[in-house]
Amino acid sequence: MLVFYENRKTDLTLTEISQRRIGCSAHLHYHIEMAIMLNGSATAFADAEREELAAGDIFIAFPNQIHRYESHDDEHYVLLIINPNLMPALSTVFHEKLPRKNVIKGAANDKEVLRLLYRLTEMPEEDNTFTNAEREGVLLMLFSRLLRQMELKESPSGETHPLKSILSYCMQNYRNEISLATLERELHISRYYISHLFSDKLHMHFNDYINSLRISYACHHLRHSKRPVTEIAELVGFTTSRTFNRAFIKQMQTTPSEYRRREAAEK
Description:
It is built from ten helices and twelve strands. It is of the alpha+beta class. It has two domains: 4-154, Regulatory protein AraC (Jelly Rolls, Sandwich); 162-266, Homeodomain-like (Arc Repressor Mutant, subunit A, Orthogonal Bundle). A five-stranded mixed beta sheet has the order 1-3-8-5-6, with no helix packed on it. Helix 2 packs antiparallel against helix 3 and helix 5 packs across helix 6. The longest helix is centred in the middle third of the chain and has 19 residues, at 129-147.
């Protein structure tokens, strides 16, 4: 199966889509993805599991879970894609657990779930302490209400699911010096096999994946903090500002300082 890694450039995307097919190819990203089926039906896949989605069902893919959809007809659905950093209180759940089933049957029929979703759409886009706290509160109420309806399990070990184990380790250790040799030593998986997995499954080099993970966090800090760019570079794992700037420009087509100015101007 061909899989692509999708680098999300925003912390939160919430879109209601009507009369358009939900189908898409297999992909994964650091964000959580939630599909709320309001009308119609589709088939959703999370890793190797297949789930049928009917009107009223909600599908949730955890960070770095390979997922895709097969459309049956034109559907009416809401798509929420969110950076787990916006909910630090649930970070352990999203980084260390996986759902046994990714679909919650009938969850979209819960009026409180819909109220919280639409509250998110009504919130101002401004970035300040109070708006961010309110947004985090709404997200925590929404996901806490949904996650308690899911049976969760520990993320698979490297022996049963090596790619999942590798991505999980990278998510937890991206701030540190990390290389194929590090992964080989810590996970007991051949560095050559790891390199092959990134090339064959994600169609990218290992170093590009690590940089994309670090840049994703850097963008979050650039948008939501006043830390100096040099401090952010070190915080997300780059050893020099020059390396950080080069990786940032390659991925975002702009410098970190210009990105910060542009994001601030759009608020």
